[in-house]
Amino acid sequence: MIRCFAILILLSTSSCTGPSFFNPSSLVSRSSGIPKEANVREKKRVDRICPSKFEIDPTKPLELIDLVDIALMHNPDLKVSWEDAKIAAYQYASTESAYFPSFQFNGSWTKLSDVSVYDGQAFTSKYYVYGPSVAFDYLIFDCGVRKNEVEAAYQYVQYQNWQQAQQIQATLKEVTLDYYMVLAEKALVQARFEDLADAKETLKAAKEKMLFGIIDESELMQATTSYYQKKLNLTEEENAFEKAVINLLRSVGIAEKAAVKTIAFPMIDLKRFEFSEEILLSQAEKLRPDLLASKANMLRSKANLSKTEAEILPQINLTGNGGQDWFTGGLTDNGDYTITFNLSFPLFQGFYYKNQIVKAKKEVTRAQTEVDRSWNDIVAEVRTAYTNFVTSKEDYKSSMKYLDAAQKQFDSILARYKQGVNTIIDVFNAEAFLSDARAKFIQSQKDFFASLIQIAFATGSMSNPQLEEKK
Predict the structure, then answer these.
(1) What top-level class would CATH report for the domain 2-101+146-316+371-467?
(2) pTM of the prediction?
């Protein structure tokens, strides 16, 4: 196993699943950890505690780990997906209440006034009646309605939890891509400094030749123009770097001004990054959250179908009530109670159940189609990411050789220009090649790391940064 790149965030693994009848909050994972096997209820859960607020220290530049932590706390879409997962968890817990009997207590106090007529005279009697009563209802047997209703609710929790995991992956992808854009812009600023230094060296050589009368003033002006052009390019690149930082902070969700710690691109050992398309597709099938979400939705549809089919079958209920009344003067009826077993099933309801079953079957078909479509999209994403990865490797190797050749060409032509062999135009052409080579080398580095991020996202490995080696 090898890490696809060092800066991916290691989030603790947890699951949205668990045994029946426990705190619904434990159903929902706060991290994007991907269980090794989907749809397994008994798993070890690891809670990841996130601080409610991240204090920005303006004197301390933010590293990538800080930026990701802030993004995971402040991303609005992530907050919505987290609340949706909690709602689904409590809904799941609510459906399990059908396994328990329900009890209801009633207490009454009644004042009665009764008027009766006897032998032409009206008599009024007043008395009180009061007492408690208890009623209960318990579903003993229902041919699977409760079981499948709970299963459907459970699979909806799975669906929402995978949706949250997918949103975390998308947030990680956006932040890391923007961070590498900042690194690229910073490297380009340094490259423009080097371009300016080359132009300054050319201008110095032109002034020396002008001093000795070897060249005329027009050639000196060309060198001066080239120098100030490189200076403007540096200013433009510094502005592009600041914009890249602003865009990164926007992705993270930071409104205030903050410094970002930038580093040079890590050295790339291409031998460490050897993947096969088959392995990547296999990992995507196991880890991709949106695929697992669509599978959970399909299982939910199947559970709803089984529930609908069971609704036309018999069910047995046990009901009962009991109480005792007291009357004025302390008299009592000594209490009474009723216990009833009920057997019920629908005979005919205007083809309601038949149509509901057909509807549920269509929903299963639609859910299966969604799984197939999701997998087709993932296959395309993985293959595209793998193609970009292969291309970026070749571009990196070629751009490194291009930069080395351009640097040697410029050094040789500048030296020959000082000796009076080459012209100023030769130097300008060499400068242009060297500047282009520097930019392309930086672009190839950014593209290489971006391709790794795309592979990690396409395979669902953004929060589990290990990819299998090619065998």
Answers:
(1) mainly alpha
(2) 0.77
